[in-house]
Design brief:
single chain, 346 residues, TIM Barrel, Type Iii Antifreeze Protein Isoform Hplc 12
Length: 346
Amino acid sequence: MIILNIFTKKPFLIADIGSNFINTAQENDISNMAAAKFAIDQAKSCGFDAVNFEAYDLKNLFSRDYVEYLSKEPITSHFFKFDGFGYEEFRELADYCHEVKISFLATPMDFESADYLEELVDVYKISSHDLTNIPFIKHVASKNKPMLLNTGGATLKEIKDAVRSIEENSLVDIAIIHSVLSYPTSYEDASLLMIKDLANNFPDYEIGYCDYTEVDDDLLVLTTAYNYGAVALEKQFTCNKAPSDNTCAITYEGVIKLKSKLAFLSKINGRINKQPLICESFARNETRKSIVAKTDIKKGELISEDKITFKMPSIGISPAQVDDVIGKKAKVDIFKDNLIDFEMFD
């Protein structure tokens, strides 16, 4: 398997395949497994670094009284759309990801799934639905694998409680993922500035973003999230864009466009710490100022403020050192417009 550590490549792109491959299977009259593998192939081909699936058993998600009601609710109906893969199927998908060299991620939604995924994943992803499920988080943390923690619908205290429960049960790395527990997420609710807030509150951990907004033409949501500090970007991925598909999923062509934009952003973002660049070397030497004699200064005269000025180039004494020059006695004649050097005075 490919080790993320957690993210060896930044930005690290995660294709949230979820159950989107079901439409592909139905429209092409192929098995769900064949459609899932096709989605993996497409994700790898267009530049994703990892794929993510959801692992669960419906009987472990909802109480019996709520099943019929919840199956009609948009926020949970997708769980009922697909409930067919278990250990054997995910093992086959994990092996296939290893074969095509893309990281395999799966989000366990219950204890049983978390247990059988242990030998299949290098990194666990915790859903926003389980952010306050501290017993479950502790159970997953005990597996001693890095964890991606989705934070949709969470208060800062709830996130800190979840992180603390991991830290108390494991020494694994944690990535804090900003997401919004509203599907689809309106642009007004994307709240991308929260990425910066998470970075400030969790400086020891990497920050990511899981996007549920509609795909905008210029991909500004994802590129802005990256520019705000999200080193991992997760987006729903679909292999077909039929009218029945959700508008939150990005297509193959969209990922190619996104990769190009992210590469350009990486290029222009450059270094974080302010420092002189190699390309600035000539300008630093040629266009900065040095201390220059404003008038002729005779040997033995004191160098006063009215006898100096500041001109290019910067190969002489910097104006920042003017206090080391004022009041000194010239030991040679210094002519007007000459650069002043420390050897010219006592």
